[in-house]
Amino acid sequence: xxxxxxxxxxxxxxxxxxxxxxxxxxxxxxxxxxxxxxxxxxxxxxxxxxxxxxxxxxxxxxxxxxxxxxxxxxxxxxxxxxxxxxxxxxxxxxxxxxxxxxxxxxxxxxxxxxxxxxxxxxxxxxxxxxxxxxxxxxxxxxxxxxxxxxxxxxxxxxxxxxxxxxxxxxxxxxxxxxxxxxxxxxxxxxxxxxxxxxxxxxxxxxxxxxxxxxxxxxxxxxxxxxxxxxxxxxxxxxxxxxxxxxxxxxxxxxxxxxxxxxxxxxxxxxxxxxxxxxxxxxxxxxxxxxxxxxxxxxxxxxxxxxxxxxxxxxxxxxxxxxxxxxxxxxxxxxxxxxxxxxxxxxxxxxxxxxxxxxxxxxxxxxxxxxxxxxxxxxxxxxxxxxxxxxxxxxxxxxxxxxxxxxxxxxxxxxxxxxxxxxxxxxxxxxxxxxxxxxxxxxxxxxxxxxxxxx
Length: 454
Ligand SMILES: C[S@@+](CC[C@H](N)C(=O)[O-])C[C@H]1O[C@@H](n2cnc3c(N)ncnc32)[C@H](O)[C@@H]1O
Hints:
- There is one protein chain.
- The protein has about 450 residues and is an alpha/beta fold.
- Helix content is about 25%, strand content about 30%.
- It has helices at about 90-110, 170-185, 225-235, 290-300, 320-325, 340-350, 365-375, 390-400, 410-425, and strands at about 10-20, 25-30, 30-35, 45-50, 55-65, 130-140, 145-150, 155-160, 200-205, 210-220, 240-245, 260-265, 265-270, 275-280, 310-315, 330-335, 355-360, 380, 405-410, 430-435, 445-454.
- Helix 7 packs parallel to helix 8 (about 390-400) and helix 8 crosses helix 9 (about 410-425).
- The chain is globular, with a radius of gyration of 23 Å.
- S-adenosylmethionine binds next to helix 5 and strand 16.
């Protein structure tokens, strides 16, 4: 049957809900239309941008009748800035939408009729919660400026005066680096033309320690005065570590080898009462307060009694494993980034934890050797990136036959696919799922799930 809509057609649509990823969901006689910038409860006029057999995509061009759940967005850059998508949706409605997305993914993709989804944990702070921001440089008539990509644009950057996701300190550091770049008459990099010099600024702030790490990313060559940059940043006593990285490729990445310009090579953050050293390229959850809540739930689901062998897979700098190590017999972490593993080992020492070991490697490839060393796991914690567990990783995980798997997920759709496979082929039952809102005003939703071997 042909789709009931055509490209470029304008339609009046009522938005029922928010799909994972952040688009509104509307139905036209049962045919699903995903509407960018449509919020639940809105009636919008939307232009169709893409038509497929099963659904269409559209962008709201006018809000005909706003949803009762709409609120005033506080940020002056909203909605042009691509950083936040839902500042104008009441926080309660954001939470409802995210909780429903987790449930819906487990129903639709996971094939579970009644997923055991518990109520979502709201964020402790709705604004200023991020401990790491990555800004792009852009050219303006006044000189280089720093900001975020405009919503939906890879090639255009919006200058930011005040970001509502970082702290006053984070905003002040960004402003100081912009002023430095202008005084030094440096040139911003142009992503489209691939010309210019200054590319990114990464500011990472240990929220519980006050320590700040700053990383400048440039195109090839040393075209700035190191001392001037260091002097600018040292005006902030919180800045402990200043790095520089060169990106010679067109790809917009910041995860690069760094040169230490000044200070310590790492900063410290505190989580769950432990100290963690964080290097520029090491993974750290970007909402410190909610990471502590997330790890608390993972610990609760692991239900350790002191005698367990625990695998902490995709362990980053060891945050989950180390935070539960005092309740386990041994903890064994695996992580692909060597920089993160170096931090994890250092962090075990820093906290005097002697029953945790960490290894660099791909999870799927490392499991056989890990079992030889560590013995059978009683509990496996997995915390993969958005792509979830690969088929190979699921298979090898399944073969370990751990009685409990605690799955920390940042993508309910890949969680749901992995849960389906763990149930169908490896005899696991999904017992609990607790969504956690780590990132208000964005489409992201985290969750912790407990799978028990039947
Ligand atoms: C979502 S982070 C979680 C890190 C840590 N559990 C935490 O809470 O901070 C995912 C981690 O998996 C690592 N990773 C990605 N692919 C991997 C793989 N195939 N094998 C092992 N680790 C991987 C990444 O480097 C990253 O540190």
